[in-house]
Design goal:
The protein is α+β, with helices and mostly antiparallel strands. It is about 25% helix and about 15% strand. It has 2 domains: about 40-130, Alpha-Beta Plaits; about 130-203, no CATH class.
Length: about 200
């Protein structure tokens, strides 16, 4: 009679342990499932912390975040649209977030839908435009975040100063001195860097 080899005995031991032991798998879908804290699930925007800078859209390798600047409407705004159906949960958006709290990977792993809109998440931020040429400067929340970081140094730039103290109404938004005044009269205006240079160089 041929005795079973050591390898066969090991297989038999594993088979008996699996037969009479408790299962290694989770109880899903019969029971709930809680992923680990480090699980990279669905990214979520925090509207109060997001400054609308668009850094997440720039670094997304799968182009899952779309950035639209709507300046044609009465209230110019930046719209960030996250397309979860193309997101690969790589975590680059969270890693390179300017405010470090604007977008975070959650532990949500089970999200389903029947249309593409079910996999979209939007954030809208008010845009700040140059009062001379009308170009986009940045979202107002981003300017306020920058002012907070700079502190007293923000007073060196008229645009930063006007945005941070807009509640004081020192100067009316969109103030136009008129054609009778020199271009330098526009120094106390919200301006893009190009227009700021032009007004600074004008004598």
């Amino acid at each position: 009679m041929k005795l079973p080899c050591l390898f066969q005995l090991r297989i038999l031991k594993v088979a008996l342990a699996s037969l009479f032991g408790r299962p290694y798998t989770t109880a899903f879908p019969k029971g709930g499932y809680t992923p680990s804290e480090r699980y990279r699930g669905r990214p979520r925007y925090d509207e109060t912390e997001c400054i609308g800078c668009g850094a997440c859209a720039e670094v997304c390798p799968s182009n899952a975040i779309e950035m639209i600047d709507d300046i044609a409407s009465d209230a110019p705004r930046r719209i960030l649209i996250q397309h979860l159906d193309t997101c690969i949960q790589c975590g680059q958006c969270e890693r390179y977030c300017t405010s470090e709290k604007g977008i975070k990977l959650s532990t949500e792993w089970d999200y389903v839908g029947f249309a593409r809109k079910d996999f979209e998440e939007r954030v809208e931020k008010e845009l700040l435009l140059c009062e001379v040429c009308g170009k986009v400067l940045a979202p107002i929340d981003q300017i306020r975040w920058l002012v907070k970081r700079l502190g007293a140094l923000a007073f060196c730039n008229p645009t930063l100063m006007l945005v941070s103290h807009s509640n004081l109404q020192v100067v009316d938004r969109g103030f136009d001195p008129g054609d009778g005044y020199p271009l330098r009269a526009r120094r106390i205006n919200i301006q893009c860097p190009h227009c700021r240079r032009k007004t600074a160089m004008t004598v």
